[in-house]
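I'll show a typical protein example:
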Amino acid sequence: YTEAWDADKTSIHVMPDTPTILLAKANAANVSHKLYIQAWEDAKKKGYDMRADAIPIRSAKASRDIASDYKYKETHEKEKGHYIGCRTAQEDPKLSWAARAMKLQNDRIYRKAYHDSKAQVHIPVDAMSVQAAKECQTLVSDVDYRHYLHQWTCLPDQNDVIHARKAYDLQSDNVYKSDLEWLRGIGWLTEGSVDVVKAKKAQELLNERLYRTRPDEMKFTSITDAPDVVQAKINALQLSDV
């Protein structure tokens, strides 16, 4: 696959003054880090003499100190004289505004008027809201909702009382199930019932031992010269580390 390319590599020759080669060399010179820092390296080799008391060094230090002091005191110089003439904090507009904002944000002061006036509210007893609340309380009250019936006293031999007792006996659950009392305590074997037979059939269908036959229980003789056995032996020899 690479024989033709290897043969062409030894026979192809590109002239060094072609535009593509010249452009590549120019690009290499532009992106070269060594050429980029060549002037700096040459300057470092020549050496320099810079003393601590040189004029540029002293000028730079003085400029730095002046700029630092100016930036440090810039805010102070701008605010200087703004507070002159305020004898108290109440006369200062900024302090007054800050105190007002603090009072508005104070929850205790915000609710002070409500706490002072909540005990001084007087509601007349015949107000519409009070009457409506009473009506609603009457409607939802369990005591007013239930009115127990009057306990009548009847003679035990009255016809309606005897008829009511017979009706109660017919409707009573104890009387309804009294004919089954003779079955209480009698044992019953469930063997052969429909549910038991159905459960056994389901167990047989789900039994793994009856559904599958284990390979070690099957009697068979493997043929040593079968194609699949021979192929398996060849694969084992090819994959063997030994």
The chain has a mean pLDDT of 80.
